[in-house]
Amino acid sequence: MPELPEVEVVRAGLAPAVVGAQITAVSVFDERALTRHAQGAADFAGRLEGAQVVAAVRRGKFLWLPVQGERDALIAHLGMSGQMLLRAPDAAPERHERVRLHIRHPRHGELAVVFADQRTFGSLAVDELLDTPDHAAGGFGSPLPRIPSQVAHIARDALDPAFDDGGFFAAVRRRASGIKRILLDQGLISGIGNIYADESLWAARIHPETEGRALSRPALARLLGEVRLVLEKALAEGGTSFDAQYVNVNGQAGYFAHSLNAYGRTGEECPRCAGPIRREAFMNRSSHYCPRCQRRRQGQRGSL
Fold first, then answer.
1. What distance in Å separates the CA atoms of residue 75 and residue 147, rounded to the nearest whole number?
2. Which among 29, 60, 112, 256 is most buried, taking Cβ atoms within 10 Å?
3. 4-148, what's its fold?
């Protein structure tokens, strides 16, 4: 599933083309792409056609396009294989294309924004914008202190200037769950999935089963610092692509897969100590870590 870096790469690619553009027409080819929009395709298109996009915003793994003059936004979640692609207005249909937005930009002219999704777990919706409880910007990409109602339960991410480090430390230290499970809790810290949790824990030398309450504040500060470094490096390299399902708005893959130290490297040498990377089952997925560098200390509990 695309995580924060992949979604941010898509947001940053969309922004120059869509901010200031008018949505002139909406074509829905598969209503499975509107599972989050309960009112159906006609309502979805009617609320967008004629609207002007004022920003491209992201929080965690969600992105949204607020429209001018309303408290509404087009919200997108990419799911497992969703893609937001920029195409010429008369471009042939993409494979697995579900929705196409026709837009007119004052500088770039006419374009098409295509939502394609092979596995149909992603979705689009028009959603109401709510005021943020802390009055800070709803997400990265706009100073507007509003957030879609469907994203309001999602915590800020570690790259958000309004992220509360102290609140995060206190919440983690109250939990008996393993730290990897905690990092994946989008209600506590958003944008981190399996790949970046494994990479951050490897960088911080913390075993994924370590209970949150067993970690000191300095250890958590080190971990949060590594989370930020890993996310920033992945952003710089365009995200992580293992197949054609994740691409940027121009259909190009990211390169962070070449920089992974733990994830997907089962049996290979740890880049730090040369011990073998281990893979273990975790929540219908896998955890990858180095048992030599990320040792389970006595008294550490938790379960993958």
1. 10
2. 60
3. N-terminal domain of MutM-like DNA repair proteins (3.20.190)
